[in-house]
Amino acid sequence: MTVRQDFPEARDLGLVPGLSRAELQRVYRQLAREYHPDGGRSGSAEIMLYINTLHDRLKQSLEVGEPPSRPAQPTPPTPAPPRTPKPANRPEKPRPARTPAMERTAPRSRETAIPDSLGELSLTRQARELMSAALIEAVDAWLVCNRGVPRNALRRRMLVRLGRIGPVSCPGLHMPERVSMVPRALRFHFRSSPVEGLNLVALPALSNEGICLHPTGEVSVLEEAFIAGQDRFSVEAGWASAHGFNLAYAGRVLPVELLFRPGESDFSASLFRLPNQRFRGVFSPPGSTP
Q1: How far apart are CA 290 and CA 280, in angstroms?
Q2: What pLDDT was estimated at residue 48?
Q3: How many independent structural domains does the chain possess?
Q4: Residue bearing the bigger pLDDT, 267 or 243
């Protein structure tokens, strides 16, 4: 083939030996966009024919240089180990027939066993602030209804100074630290112990999606009389249902239980450390007899 002198050199075009198949195709497409007579900027049928000839030679050299591919040899199957014949003189032990009593006492499998704990929720600082505010409101209402103490802070201080309001014992105040759900009940765990007599317990309303517990942002206060040293209490179903505790598991509404720690300090002492001294003079100091 005769090459005109004004044709570009192969090295200038980039069509040189040593290119991989992908690089060769990329260079060829770029040259075709530039020199093709139908749309290239330097369109020329002769130069394009020259480029095609160089491309075909390089492509043939790549095909000749590649080793032929070998078909994959199938892996021979592994022979199974010989089976040991069962001795004929060994008698088989008779299996006892399953009775209805055995069916009732059969242990549960791991898949069907009921877990001890389904879910647990630790109450945040924001939830504790809501419960503390609910307890203070409950204490105010108890003072108004049972002791005749006015809600107005100024009138309350005047009556204390005049001696018309004597120090009274503060009811036990409690708010839970965490909540757990077990297959049998919804349990509120406290770090305090009940006092003898009236106790006010703040309980945050909850909802659940399966075993996931979510606080709704509402707080209810339970007023209940406890015995000193009592560490467990079951909330009445009517009160729990009326205050939004309708959590269900396996189609059954869970009862509400309160679990206390006997001997721990109660929350009522924090009322005497309020910045505004809201109940100054109304309650006797913790541990003293009014």
Answers
A1: 14
A2: 84
A3: 2
A4: 243
pLDDT at 162: 84
Query: Do 130 and 242 lie in a common domain?
Result: yes
Considering just the CA atoms, what is the radius of gyration of the chain in Å?
A: 44
What confidence tens digit (pLDDT) does each residue in 39-67 have? 656 667 888 888 888 888 888 888 765 54
Residue 235: per-residue pLDDT: 92
Question: Is there a domain that residue 200 lies in?
Answer: yes
Residues 135 and 253 placed together within one structural domain of the fold: yes
Cβ neighbors of 209 (< 8 A, separation 6 or more) are none
Q: Structural domain of residue 141, as residue ranges?
A: 119-273
Q: Encode pLDDT of 168-198 as tens digits.
A: 888 888 889 889 888 888 899 998 888 888 8
Whether residue 262 contacts residue 190, with contact meaning beta carbons closer than 8 Å, is answered with: no
Both tokens of 117, joined, read 């704990």
DSSP calls for 26-50: HHHHHHHHHH-TTT-TT--HHHHHH
DSSP-assigned states of every residue in 86-149: PPTT-PPPPPPPPPHHHHHHPPPPTTTPPPS--EEEE--HHHHHHHHHHHHHHHHHHIIIII--
H/E element holding 201?
strand 197-209
Which residues, other chains included, contact 133 with Cβ-Cβ below 8 Å and sequence gap of 6+? Answer: 219
Q: How many residues are listed for the chain in this entry?
A: 290
Q: Is 56 strand, coil or helix? A: helix
Q: What would the pLDDT profile of 17-30 be if each residue is shown by its tens digit?
A: 888 888 888 888 88
Indicate if 143 and 240 belong to the same structural domain.
yes
Find out whether 266 and 195 touch, Cβ atoms under 8 Å.
Answer: yes
> And the tokens for 266?
């109660």
